[in-house]
Amino acid sequence: MKLFDLSGRKTLEAASPVPFAEWKDSQQGTAISLPQDVEVEELRPYLSSLTLIVLEFPVFRDGRAFTQARSLREYEGYKGEIRASGHLLPDQAIHLRRCGFDSVALSEDANVKDWEEQLGRYQFYYQNTAVSPV
Amino acid sequence: MTQPASRSVGHYQYEERDRAFLQERINEFEGQVRRRLSGELSEEEFKPLRLMNGVYLQLHAYMLRVAIPYGVLDSRQLHKLADVAAKYDRNYGHFTTRQNIQFNWIALKDVPTILRELAEVDMHAIQTSGNCIRNVTSDEFAGAAKDELMDPRIHAEIVRQWSTLHPEFTFLPRKFKIAISGSPEDRVAARFHDIGLLARPSENGPLFRLFVGGGLGRTPVVGQELFDSVKEEDLIATLEAVLRVYNAFGRRDNLYKARIKILVQTIGLEAFRKAVEEELARMDRAAYRLTPEHVAQIRARFALPDLKAPADASDVLEQHKKADPAFARWVASNTHPHQDEGHICAVISLKTPGDIPGDVTSEQMHGLADLAERHSFGEVRVTHLQNLVFGHVRKDQLHELWQGLKALGLAAPNVGLISDIVSCPGLDYCNLANARSLPLAQKLGARFGDAALQAEIGALSIHMSGCINACGHHHVGNIGLLGVDKRGAETYQILLGGDAGENAAIGGILGPSFAEDEAVDAVARIVEFYLGQRQKGETFSAMLKRCGLKAFKEVAYETV
């Protein structure tokens, strides 16, 4: 796995994430992963002790994690790292960044150039987002 | 390329940054095609990406669906579409029920080049397909109709821009369609959209009545009112909130249960409304506020037509009608009252009996663009019933326009009448269809082709779909036809009593399906029964209510 920096955060969390359901019992460590069918509100009591939340994409067409990320930023005020993991395409780089993702976990053979090119593509966007105003 | 000196009448005039954005979108798509051809992208991965840019793989070839935002074109754009049809297709294009145009015989390798040509006239294929927010539709008489409360196109453009490459709502459970009207007469089928907006002015600015969860397809549902009066400043926030609830909770395990209508039905309107209100309560409203300044900026990029007509324009029109009964008949069915006394809206039927509904040849498009330049400030609108509208025609020049249309073979006097048939492309083109729809539409058109007979029958709509995905909106036709596969044979079910407007209703299925020619005969018997039994001024739907479906059923199956 290699990490790709979407938001220019520079230092990305190196710890391995623990599935949220397990982490809740032990509360060991500060990195968790969250499936798409869990509402991020459930994380509210724990957010201050988390430094990394990994949101999962079982398939790139399933866009629920975009709403999860935006809710974390906009509703919950979470300031730590949000990472995308799973089946993702470089074509989604801007969507991820603009919804509040900081990083994406890529496979070793992924073409980083495609991701970089996509990030620099558009000079402006038509809509405001809470995390990246126009 | 030369730019028009003035702003376009009827649609948003692009600025440089919009054009730069389009170029980048094309570069992006070109890269996606390249990665597909090199194998870097699998077909499974490429499919949603190409769909989001209007490229379908049809039965025989690729199809490209080009966006016509809120259905408004200018003449240079129509000339360009004609060129694309001639150069890259088989010399024609097909206008759709979503106010777009489709080219059915496109080579994938040509798509980036076609997109560059379209971009020269500020056109694109963004979000004409795929599981994202689709091209927004509007009233074909917007900014012209006498009955209009407010011009919906400014807000249609605002919604178009807001939805373009939206970062959060581009990978939705399913497609999402928004329509907006500013007339008390619902001419956009607002109750049959994922979101339907009916705009009206008030002392404190525009208000929007918002319907949610309507739609046709496999599960036809009449949309329900979510909010009665959304304020202009809350319009974008409210759309965001609805879409967030849908994106988070819409079903993704079953393609046929993934539209927002199923979510609203499953949890109920009250629970859905509560979820949307919770989103709105938590949202940073300032970030999503639609400001009067922003609305004014968009409004400033629309030009208004300079409506000057001679004082005797109405009299001249009356004289022309008296002198030419064929013209008078066309005026009776193919025009709509304009806000300005000296002007009128002209509807150009793309349903010449016997021809394919919605199809226009390249030569006809060029001819129409020239006529629009001369008679309607260069502006052409596409209707959701697959016809075209010239919005602002001087009454004293209407006869001249009609003669021009006759020369193009586009003067069928049948708008709103029985041969004004809405139809999907059907099995001739589409790999979803169970049956062909065009031959049946053609046969019905020919059967009722006689202008005097049509005038006698009066307002009556026939809608035809080749399968249950309902692209021809068969549920909302007064008479609906649905292609079904019956042990390998193409047959047709008949539905009666649909209505897309203020009295929204879904048609009831009459009974077992008919073979093609039997279906034509059955429709003929149904119409004959209506003519014989109707009371003075009674509409088809009213008589159906009075007599009941069973009476019509007996007639339809009489000799079968």
From TrEMBL, chain A:
This is DUF934 domain-containing protein. InterPro entries: UCP030820. Pfam families: DUF934. It comes from the Bacteria.
TrEMBL record, chain B:
Keywords: 4Fe-4S, Heme, Iron, Iron-sulfur, Metal-binding, Oxidoreductase. Residues 62-121, 350-407 form the Nitrite/Sulfite reductase ferredoxin-like domain. SUPFAM superfamilies: Nitrite and sulphite reductase 4Fe-4S domain-like, Nitrite/Sulfite reductase N-terminal domain-like. The keyword Nucleotidyltransferase does not apply. It comes from the Bacteria. Residues 129-281, 421-556 form the Nitrite/sulphite reductase 4Fe-4S domain. The keyword Coiled coil does not apply. This is Nitrite/sulfite reductase. It comes from Bombella pluederhausensis.
